[in-house]
């Protein structure tokens, strides 16, 4: 029996050491050397060096003076990230989307963009399409008392064109640039 047990236990211990300690340490070390910003969470800092969030995770912004991210089923909490799992035929989803659409609707701008009404799969998508940002532009410009053309230039600067897929805007980065341009009192 020991002829079978000893090699089996030795192999389990060796593989535990390799896959449970050596490999994770090697990957972490390489990531810290090659991609330190990404390996540490792609943190976004303000002018004083304070961490304000991550470029990879959406945050909830409220008030007319801010661009709002897409809705989150988990209130932007990373622990509860995920979709609401409400299907398109679910009355609760229809009620929430209808209520949000009624709140956001501006007659002069037409229908509310879908990205402002629906959650992403993770509930933490930090990006919005430029059309969803443009829909919010008049509200933010009025609240900040900044010309829409100046805000549009800010949005254009913040628009990213990924290698694959449509253009997107990181809402946190845009709101930070907006705060530098036209600070809200008390922020």
Automatic annotation (TrEMBL):
Predominant location category: membrane
Keywords: ATP-binding, Cell membrane, Ion transport, Membrane, Nucleotide-binding, Potassium, Potassium transport, Transmembrane, Transmembrane helix, Transport
Record function comment: Part of the high-affinity ATP-driven potassium transport (or Kdp) system, which catalyzes the hydrolysis of ATP coupled with the electrogenic transport of potassium into the cytoplasm. This subunit acts as a catalytic chaperone that increases the ATP-binding affinity of the ATP-hydrolyzing subunit KdpB by the formation of a transient KdpB/KdpC/ATP ternary complex.
Lineage, top ranks: Bacteria, Pseudomonadati, Pseudomonadota, Gammaproteobacteria, Pseudomonadales
Compartments in which it is found: Cell membrane
Membrane topology, as annotated: Single-pass membrane protein
Keyword Amino-acid biosynthesis found: no
Gene: kdpC
SUBUNIT field: The system is composed of three essential subunits: KdpA, KdpB and KdpC.
InterPro entries, alphabetized: KdpC
Protein's name according to its UniProt entry: Potassium-transporting ATPase KdpC subunit
Family: Belongs to the KdpC family.
Pfam families in the record: KdpC
